[in-house]
Design goal:
The chain is α/β, with parallel strands linked by helices. The protein has a single domain, classed as Histone deacetylase domain (Arginase, Chain A). Helices cover about 40% and strands about 15% of the residues. The protein is built from ten helices and eight strands. Helix 1 (about 25-35) packs across helix 10 (about 295-310), helix 8 packs parallel to helix 9 and helix 9 packs parallel to helix 10. The longest helix is centred in the N-terminal third of the chain and has 20 residues, at about 90-110. The protein is globular, with a radius of gyration of 17 Å.
Amino acid sequence: MAVSLISDPVYLKHETGVHPENAKRLEAIISALDKGESLSNRLVRITPKPAHNEDIARCHREELVYHLESLCVRGETYVDVDTRISPESFEVAKLAAGAATTAVDAVMNQDGGRAFCVIRPPGHHATITNAMGFCLFNNAAIGARYAQARYGVERVLIIDWDVHHGNGTQDIFWSDPTVFYFSTHQYPHYPGTGAADERGDGRGEGTTLNIPLSMGTPARDHRQAFIDAMHQIERGFPPDLVIISAGFDSRRGDPLGGLMLEDADFSEMTKEVLRVAEKHASGRVIGLLEGGYNLALLGGSVKSHISALL
């Protein structure tokens, strides 16, 4: 089984200066993947296409799109105090969202298809109306909506193991029973959301599951909570497609987090995702890069995830 690796050097043009989310993150990942020849040879390299306006509009208000484009055209350097941009950032963000739709095409066109997107800027903090937390457009949400619109996928499971709660993804699908959002994250931590009692609303009540974890939670306990949750989700929401907001800042040693996962834990969690996907979703799994800011460790964590996908 090959894995589609979706990326583009254009992502380096989202210039953020001295900032945790910078181009060196992608360089570290690509370098680590290229060093492992046996792994690299099993990756099918795909160049993404930018997301269409209609793809973005399924998840974000027109006012947000216009606002981000205007900021970039004017040469502004911040969306908010945390979120850096440059003149190229708007087009790069469309290409990051486009990687998600490209990945959907790749996995839906083959049985058991799997893909990983090495992209930036990340996406899971972007809400319907706001860019925040280093994120401009919500890549995972755009991919999920595209899968439903283009391929008639009925149930999408979005799994988020970033150290930060994906408030944007939760916001977009809060009342939607067709997309299940599951997050493990450090709590309390940025952005302040993700309590266990946040479960969705209306028809979407029960299709949000948050597992808040204290700083320093042992990796064994973290991993077991993840596996237990996957069994719970599987019983009530067998997915047709699985998308992972794959943030590797939940690894021990990341400067922006305090969780304790090791590379082997990402591998085991990926295998659990595959178990569910192979049983219910024809094996179709997409990983989208979110956080991960320790440049010495990030490449190894991504390799562990992709090796498990293989």
